[in-house]
What we know:
Layout: H1 2-28, H2 35-61, H3 75-96, H4 103-123
Helix pairs in contact: 3-4
Amino acid sequence: KVFSIMGAFQAMVPLAAAPVYANLYKSTVEFFPGAFLLFSAGLYIVVLVLMVAVNIGMRREGLIGEDKQPDSKFNSEKLVERKEQGQVLLNDELGAGDNTDNNGSDQKRISRFQEEMKQTEIRYK
């Protein structure tokens, strides 16, 4: 969602920027021709402040920063690894029992496993 909004905004900026810069240059060219450059610098400063604010917010939430290790894996790799471990554990649990009729407990294990996988996928999205 965020990327689609950013893409739409990025496509609309040139539509608004051209007239703004043209009018700014036309009205300041006689006494200060570099005014549009200062305007651009001001916009970059605003973007810088917003990026720093987002970075600080993400660090406070624990989304970036603290647990950086040189061999850290991406979230998708962690998800796949956890899913594979869960499937191995599930297969071990289902195959380890004797041949008595315990379909009810097997279904509970499978349901619990599926619920845990949904929560893990939501967490790593």
